[in-house]
């Protein structure tokens, strides 16, 4: 066949495929004919199909489509790759900081370098042993009140006149006043004596913090034990629909709950709210306890390493900047410290609320283990305080907020009292062990009230963007500014009193 005949044949094939009663369709650059070649012409048709795949008329733009990141797109793309990138960048940046820290300071970990005085250890041990005795003093007080209540119930079973019943009510109120007085003295001594010894006689802030935290926990348990038994006693002496008790309490009614065993369980249980009965698990999983304790001690070592190797140099290098009020340098120090303090804080959260409290709950077969909820997703500061540290939140709600609202206080005024009490306890927990009651922790807690008011609207909006803004305000105010700035100020106050700043002034 000549060249001209070949060209003519090819042109005829193209004309046939593009015209006629069954037009072909171009799909992804390939020609799909109405009828496949068969018989003696199958080889020629196959060659024609192969050639048509490379034609330059394929309709790639055949429909309306939007960019993946545009709002108009119908399919929301996955951002898993960006998440992986952020994790990689975060790891790389922290590795760089680790290398920089090692090149600049070397290894700062030193087990023997801590200033553990014998007096600190001895006094701390004595306080740890004696503080729980205040709970058992509360038991003696409640035992006396329970006996008085039994006598009152015995007299009420007799036919009494209205005047005699009124005298019984006055006797009950008088008994409660005496009981409340002794409970107040007992709980106050628990906190006051511990705070006095820690502030004046325990130098090491770590030992002092453990002692002060233990005293605050026992103080809160004392308060809950007294308030709850007061209402249980009232419900027994004056039963009514208003004083009806939860069904779970029916297995241990007042005053059968006033026993040493019942109080000891409350003392060791991971809760600050007293109940005669708690939900209990069926058995103890010792493997679970071992895992949680391993996590706790591992994270405790991790926190100690971070504090000694990374936080301490940043704090020491900030002293001269704070002394001369170099604002730019102070801000840079706060930003640098924020990463370390955030990691330490998250590790401390997991070690305490997930590991230690779950291990303790398993040993005590304590069933309600909602020690926190998803506070990291909080769209407002108010949501954060309701979901972080649930044991303290439940105590404040049950024994401070709800009673005040029930007595006619507005929710705002009751919230103010809750945060005032919390601010005092925070200042005691930080200021007394560091021997510097400078009010920073108190001010930080009270500043939560306007932040809660500012971020409250973001909690109520249905738009995801609003919740993101509220969550971002929470993270910035709490972890990027609040914690590192507070750590800097208390460290500077400590150094001004005992360290390099006081020596410079001399």
From TrEMBL:
Keyword presence, Transmembrane: yes
Membrane-spanning segments: 75-99, 121-141, 180-202, 296-316, 337-357, 408-425, 437-458, 473-494
A Pfam family hit: MBOAT
GO MF terms, alphabetically ordered: diacylglycerol O-acyltransferase activity
Region (Disordered): 1-50
Subcellular location: Endoplasmic reticulum membrane
Record keywords, A-Z: Acyltransferase, Endoplasmic reticulum, Membrane, Transferase, Transmembrane, Transmembrane helix
Topological relation to the membrane, as annotated: Multi-pass membrane protein
GO biological process: triglyceride biosynthetic process
Biological role stated in the UniProt entry: Sterol O-acyltransferase that catalyzes the formation of stery esters.
Alphabetical list of PANTHER family matching this protein: DIACYLGLYCEROL O-ACYLTRANSFERASE 1, STEROL O-ACYLTRANSFERASE
Family label: Belongs to the membrane-bound acyltransferase family. Sterol o-acyltransferase subfamily.
Protein known as: O-acyltransferase
